[in-house]
Amino acid sequence: MVFRKLPGVSASGMGLRLSQKFVFLLFLSGLVTLCFAALFFLPDSVRLKRIFLSKSENQPATAAGSGMAAENDASERSKSQRDQEHPRGVTSAKGESGVVVIAGGAGRGGLARFKGLTRKTPPSYEATEERLAGGKAQEDMTLGSDKDSSPDSGATFAYKKFRRCLLKPPLGRDGGKPGDPKTDKRREKVKEMMKFAWDNYKQYAWGKNELRPLTKNGHIGNMFGGLRGASIIDSLDTLYIMGLLDEYNDAKEWVRINLDLTSNGEASLFEVNIRYVGGLLSAYYLTGEEMFKTKVLELGAKLLPAFNTPTGIPRGVINLGSSGSSWSWGWASAGSSILAEFGTLHLEFIHLSELSGDPIYTEKVMNIRKLLNKIEKPQGLYPNFLSPVSGNWVQHHVSIGGLGDSFYEYLIKSYLMSDKTDEDAKNMYYNALEAIENNLVQKSPGGLTYMAEWRGGILDHKMGHLACFSGGMIGIGADDGAPDKRQHYLDLAAEVTHTCHESYDRSATKLGPEAFRFDGGAEATATRLSDRYYILRPEVIESYMYMWRLTHDPKYREWGWEAVEALERHCRVESGFSGIRDVYTLADSHDNMQQSFFLSETLKYLYLLFSDDDLLPSEDWIFNTEAHPLPVVRKSCLQDASVTAQDKNKLPG
Ligand code: DMJ
Fold first, then answer.
1. By the 8 A CB rule, do 120 and 145 touch?
2. If both were cysteines, with which of 257, 283, 376, 493 could 292 make a disulfide (CB 3.0 to 4.6 Å apart)?
């Protein structure tokens, strides 16, 4: 700046009068004050902060005990990133976004940026074999992927930490091998059945969704919106826990190379969630293989647009392509959504939030929960159809079987999976169970306990095969019921399971029909031709497995073995297993379909039934409705940098 000496003006210093100097200084100090004020009063700006604040103040704290802060930061980051880059909610997996937060990392904290995913060598199968045999390689294999996902490596989810928060090793001391040779032989038989089903699928239907064992080809169907390999995804964890490791490896490589998530088809939100999301989540949690996590997060993001309805209750069908449009099933009353569909997302979505650090999945399912909790319920019951537009029930049909079933299952399992902290789920479950007992539970003249269906107050004395899961459900919830009800719940669970066994025992094939009745003189038998089929469903065997674990009454293993023999006799064909059209005739008529849930559920539950309880122990693992094991979320342990659940378990008191 140049200060000019003005003529006729007595000047001092720089040629300015004292008063001029004073005005200038005043102006200068005003300017400086204004600049600082701008810094503090203008909206928060990271760039200004970077300039003016020290580096350490600029970084979010992610030190020990503040794991949540790191998680929240990751959530915010991914949420805003998604909003900006993928306005329709279609995101790439976190690992691919290039930005991840160091989780845990005691005392260090800080935001770290990484490009792409760290590739790793697949786990060694020798190590797995050795681990299954209880060898020293256990730690190497089970925690193999920690090299990628430990807090130090920068992944969003600390896998190693998660493993330490389990109370017991997932595969038990010896892969769950039972001490008793007879049981072990039975277990080996189930493993052979799995291998047979898998080998035939691989030979004739590889990459398709399901095997058609009579015509020896693949079936694609229209439930999965162009996604393929349903039998592969559904089999991953079963193969793994059975120690069929070559087969597991083939399945894993197919997922790595061929699972194409860019499909543009129309899918059932429910089916994709329970089979694909559930299957990939389990595979990740059991093996620590990062690729499964990447895939499941990519798929999970594709499901989010289904929730864009006035109430947030998702519609049943979703386009998995970029349009993300969704609609209700044509057959569902007045554009309604189905209770068993929108009510069977909770377990998987909680884990999507856990793995991604993005709370959006939890928010979506909590919103469903809130609406259902608030809405008026006829006699305390939850009807099967709800409008995603008005949030009101569309008609009053209540069923513990199809259309309603797994909603109830997910209430009690949400409570158990939350390490018994989700009190809302607990209350909703026990209230629902009370309403079910008051309105639906019946005793037949022959003394069989069953669950009828309810149509606006009128009972339909029919029980679906699907409803037979409820024996197991009531059993696993017994212990957390009111103290004076616990034995009652266990008895009820046993009675329902007994009835379901009767539905098998009263057929010529010793397999149960799709639905059985308790009217017109019938007791646990199908009276309609259209209800006589059996499509390899798991629900009855599922209840045997839970009841075995809860009571150790040997009858459940005997009943399971009866089912194995019946499956071998009537459903095993030259190239796989097939459903049958009529359980009451010995001249088998096969339906030519090996359902993917046979591999995922029926054979897994049988295998667990003949295993020691320490294979996927109930303290640590909750099975989703497709029998994919998901771990209990131990928030306090996961956030505690130093003490693990195993340590805590050992602490006195
Ligand atoms: C499976 O896909 C799941 O168990 C679902 O909850 C109900 N139906 C089939 C098996 O029967």
1. yes
2. 283
Is pLDDT larger for residue 263 or for residue 179?
179
pLDDT digits (tens, 9 = 90+) for 599-645: 999 999 999 999 999 999 999 999 999 999 999 999 999 987 566 66
Catalytic residue among 210, 266, 409, 514, which? 514
Q: How far apart are CA 101 and CA 119, in angstroms?
A: 18
CB 265 within 8 A of CB 320: yes
Question: What's the full length of the chain, in residues?
Answer: 653
Residue 425: helix, strand or coil by DSSP? helix
Instruction: Using a cut of 0.85, tell me whether the model's pTM lies above it.
Output: no
Task: Return the SS3 of 525.
Answer: strand
- Per-residue confidence (pLDDT) for residue 333, from 0 to 100: 83
Q: Is the CB of 62 under 6 A from ligand 1?
A: no
Could you tell me if the CB of 557 is within 6 A of ligand 1? no
Residue 308 neighbours by CB under 8 Å, 6+ apart = 89, 324, 326
DSSP 8-state assignment for residue 276: I
Which of 175-189, 429-443, 447-461, 635-649 is predicted least confidently? 635-649
Q: For 153-177, how does the pLDDT look when each residue is reduced to its tens digit (9 = 90+)?
A: 445 799 999 999 999 999 999 999 9
How many Å apart are CA 283 and CA 293, to the nearest integer?
9
- CA of residue 406 to ligand 1 center, whole Å: 8
Q: Kind and range of the H or E element at 127?
A: helix 125-132
1 pLDDT above the threshold of 50: no
Based on the residue annotation, tell me whether 514 is a catalytic residue of this protein.
yes
3-state secondary structure 455-499: ECCEEECEEEHHHHHHHHHHHHHHHHCCHHHHHHHHHHHHHHHHH
